[in-house]
Amino acid sequence: GLHQINTHKAKIICIVESEKTAVLMTALIPNVIWLASGGMNLSIENFRPLKQFKLILFPDVGVEDRNGKTPYQKWQDKASLLETLGYTVSVSSVLENKATIQQREKGYDLADYLMKTDTELGLALNDNDYPVSWDFNSNTFPN
User: Fold this and answer.
1) Angle at CA 82, nearest 5°, toward 92 and 87?
2) Which of 97, 55, 26 is nearest to 108 (CA)?
3) What single-letter DSSP state applies at residue 130?
């Protein structure tokens, strides 16, 4: 998705881990550039073309690894390093503040979270992975 920085007028780049999430979020919030890191691949070299942009990192949620750090903490560390190199970067705490223990254990990302919880936009999927809006009961329709 890096090609977007030359054609898109946005000054904000949001970085998520998975390509799936970048694609979904591009459709939902098109006024920023959504890029995927391809997992936890946040090498400084990959950030060089993004220095003139405001960056917002959206890490997956998770449990502590063997070093005692969550994905959020790892991305916070990377953001701090980038700031020392002159980047304007922040780390979103949306998932960190809202995710349940079960969602953390499954390693939810922003797309997973929206697909399981967002009924307002109609994105939520039920446990059988089809839209919640397809579920109805007799109280929904008049007799």
Assistant:
1) 85
2) 97
3) S
